[in-house]
Amino acid sequence: MGAVLVTFAAATTVAPAYAAVSCGHTLEFYKTQYEVSVFENVSCNGSVYAIYSKVEFYRPEIRKGSKWCEPARSCTSVAGMVNTPGTQTYCARAHGEWFKDYMDLPPGTSQALKPIEACTTA
Predict the structure, then answer these.
(1) What is the pTM of this model?
(2) 14, pLDDT greater than 90
(3) Terminus of the chain with fewer CB atoms < 10 Å: N or C?
(4) What is the DSSP letter of 44?
(5) Residue 20, pLDDT above cutoff 50
C-alpha cells in the first residue's frame, strides 16, 4: 500500500499583521500501512526572528512534536504513531507561535497562531 498525504488547507489560520509580517499554519496528515504522521506547517510572508511549531495527536493517544526555527520564513514540526490494524480515527491539533525579533522573547510575548484541529481515518 502506498503512502497517502491528506492536506487540510481549510484548517489554515493567519495571525494578525505585526510590523507588516503575518504568519499562518496548516495541518497535514501522512498515512502509510504502518504509520500515521501529522505535520504543522507554519509559513510567514516575510522573515521573522523565530518560529516555534507545535503539533500533537490527542486521539487515540497523545504524541507531541515541536521544532524551533530561526531566522525563518517557515517551519514544520511532526508527530507520528503506529497505524494499528483496522480503521481508526486520528485527531491532531497545532498551536504554533512566532517572534518578529529578539525583543519578543521570552515566550509569552510572541504572536500566537490560532489553534487548529483536524481528524483523519486510517
Answers:
(1) 0.79
(2) no
(3) N
(4) E
(5) yes
Taking the C-alpha atoms of residue 16 and residue 98, their distance in angstroms, rounded to an integer, is: 11
**Per-residue CA distances from 37 to 27, 30, 69, 71, 73 (Å):** 10, 5, 20, 26, 23
Which tens digits make up the pLDDT trace of 28-55?
999 999 999 999 999 999 999 899 999 9
Distance between CA atoms of residues 102 and 78, nearest Å = 25
**Are the beta carbons of 100 and 11 closer than 8 angstroms?**
no
Contact predicate 122/90, CB 8 Å: yes
Q: How many Å apart are CA 120 and CA 105, to the nearest integer?
A: 35
Residue 76 corresponds to which cell in the numbers above? Answer: 514544520
The alpha carbon of residue 83 and the mean position of all alpha carbons in its chain are separated, in whole angstroms, by 20
SS3 96: coil
Strand ranges in the chain using DSSP code E only, listed in sequence order: 4-14, 23-31, 35-48, 50-59, 63-69, 72-82, 89-94, 97-99, 111-112, 116-121
